[in-house]
Known about the structure:
By secondary structure, the protein is mainly β. Helices cover 13% and strands 42% of the residues. The protein is globular and about 45 Å long.
Amino acid sequence: MFESRSYEVRQKLAIGNKYRVYEGDTPILESAQKKLRLKEDFRFTDPDSGEELFRVKADSMLDISAAYDIVDSRTDEPVGSVKREAISFFKHEYTLLDPDGNVVATIREDSVPLAIARRLLTTLIPFSYEIVTPDGRSVGQAKGAFSLRDKYSIELRGDDLDPRLAVVGVVVIDAIEEN
Length: 179
């Protein structure tokens, strides 16, 4: 698991946000967002056994300023966090933090015109995010495909970024933004 640099995420038809993550043709994670919680709560499980592999909890009740802490459920070790940057109608941007709170990457929406069209016209326009390091190097992207339910690929380049942080982080962003 997490040996590849390419992943696919498919939103499942269900009440609430449920996702399945694939590495190649193999499902590696399922996710469900807990509903009716004061703080956001996500669980990522093994699709075969149902064993909890990761948990993600918001550190505050206010979604606009929350950091979403990602923890490996088997070891109880922090993987990192996803933090929303200043809210913008024009372009979404999130920061990926390592377990020590250091910025390791930023995930930002592709373009202002497309972002505005997604918000004003239709959410059927697939989203696209670029993943960049603090020094501006592109280390990956998350690209949606035209579909009634969310379906997107995550491509990572190099070894600068923990794939668990990138993949789980992008799924959490998708659920929060309801892309």
